[in-house]
Design a protein that fits this description.
By secondary structure, the protein is an alpha/beta fold. The chain has helices at residues 23-42, 75-84; strands spanning 6-12, 49-55, 59-60, 73-74. The protein has a two-stranded parallel sheet with strand order 1-2. Strands 3-4 form a two-stranded parallel sheet.
């Protein structure tokens, strides 16, 4: 990893809670969570910043607009937050 670099991973709540019939989503999400934890430990003290943004919500996109019944973040809001990191 590059000294002074910043790496941001985007994950979801499926890494933290098993969801029946969604093993194909939960397993790689949990693996990514562990990858982030390992990278944090391996790069501690060398000027590399590693973040994981966990989205526990549906995200409204151009292809899938917000559901009027649920408050949803937009893809643009998520992008602005990640760019801020």
């Amino acid at each position: 990893m590059t000294h002074g670099g910043s790496y941001t991973f985007i994950g979801g709540g499926a890494a933290h809670k098993p969801i029946p019939k969604y093993g194909a989503v939960c397993i790689p999400a949990a693996a990514q969570l562990m990858l982030v934890r390992v990278l944090v430990e391996e790069n501690r003290g060398i000027g590399v910043r590693i973040n994981e943004v966990v989205l526990n919500s549906l995200i409204a996109t151009r292809e899938r607009p917000a559901d009027e019944q649920q408050a949803q973040l937009t893809a643009e809001e998520v992008g602005r937050y990640i760019a801020w990191l």
